[in-house]
Amino acid sequence: MPPLKIKKGSSRHSAYDLRDPNAEIVETHTLAVIVDNEAGVLARVIGLFSGRGYNIDSLTVAEVDHTGHLSRITIVTTGTPAVIEQIKAQLGRIVPVHEVHDLTVEGPSVERELALFKVSGVGDKRVEALRLADIFRANAVDSTLSSFVFEVTGTSEKIDAFADLMRPLGLVEMARTGVVAVSRGTE
C-alpha cells in the first residue's frame, strides 16, 4: 500500500493530535483590581470566582493607598477570551471595585513572585543546592548544618524551575507569595 500523501495546507489533522480543533483556546490573564480597603471586599471578589466556577491561579492583596483606603488585588486566572471578558465585566460591577485592569492585554507589564524554599541536605547535595541557588540568584536567608532556607524572586516560571531542581536535593517545604504585577511605562 503506498504511503498517504497530504498536500501542504490540507485540512487533514494528525491522528495523534487529540485536541479539539473547534475548542476555544484557554488563556492566562493577570488582572489588577483596585478596591476599597474595607472588611468583606476580598470575600466578595473571591465569591464572584467561586460562585461561577472560575479558577484563581494566584491571588495577592495589599493596601496601596493608606490615605485613600485603597487596596490592590492581583489575580492570575485562566479561561477562554469570552470568560476573561465576563470576569472583568462582573468584577467592575462589584460596588467597592474602582478599577479593573487586564495587564495581559493592556501592554507590557512586570510580574514577580517571591518564594521561600527549605532545602535539607548534607555533603554533595548541600554543595549542589548552594551552586544552583547562586545560578538562580537566590538568597540564603537561614542556614543550619543540615538545611537552608532560600529566598527566590522572579517570574512564576523561574520559581517553578528552582523548585524542580531542589526536589531531588532535599526540598522539604515551599511557601509562595503569589504574583504581583504592574504595567510598564509612564502611565
Automatic annotation (TrEMBL):
Entry keyword NADP: no
Record key words, sorted: Amino-acid biosynthesis, Branched-chain amino acid biosynthesis, Transferase
InterPro entries from the UniProt entry: Acetalactate_synth_ssu, Acetolactate_synth/TF_NikR_C, Acetolactate_synth_ssu_C, ACT-like_dom_sf, ACT_dom, AHAS_ACT, AHAS_small-like_ACT
Pfam families attached to this UniProt entry: ACT_AHAS_ss (PF22629), ALS_ss_C (PF10369)
A single GO cellular-component term on record: cytosol
Enzymatic reactions: 2 pyruvate + H(+) = (2S)-2-acetolactate + CO2
Family named by the database record: Belongs to the acetolactate synthase small subunit family.
UniProt-recorded name of the protein: Acetolactate synthase small subunit
Protein species of origin: Tranquillimonas alkanivorans
